[in-house]
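As the next step, I needed to go through one protein, both as residues and as discrete backbone shape codes, included below for the reader:
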Amino acid sequence: MSDQFRDDQSDRDRFGRDVADAIRARDLISEAEYLPDDFTVRYLRLGDTEPGICHLTSAYRAFGNAPDPERRDRISAFAAVADHGGAPDDFETARPMLRCVIRPAYYV
């Protein structure tokens, strides 16, 4: 295994552990575990029985190589997502949360 690959892996793993630690520190979270094989963090909110999953690939690409102070801030903001529950079970519950999205017209 090349040293470059080992360094990349250890930085990814450090990033994953940092995200798991930040999620675990949230008040509404009972547990969080970094899963290096999937590059995800599995977490459980207080009172929930089904875990949430944070996929880390896009976040790592976006700010994994940021300077440490910025990286810590971005990880903290990313971890705040874990405070929010899953999607509502029915449309009537979801309706007030929906927003219009304006996008360009496309021709087929």
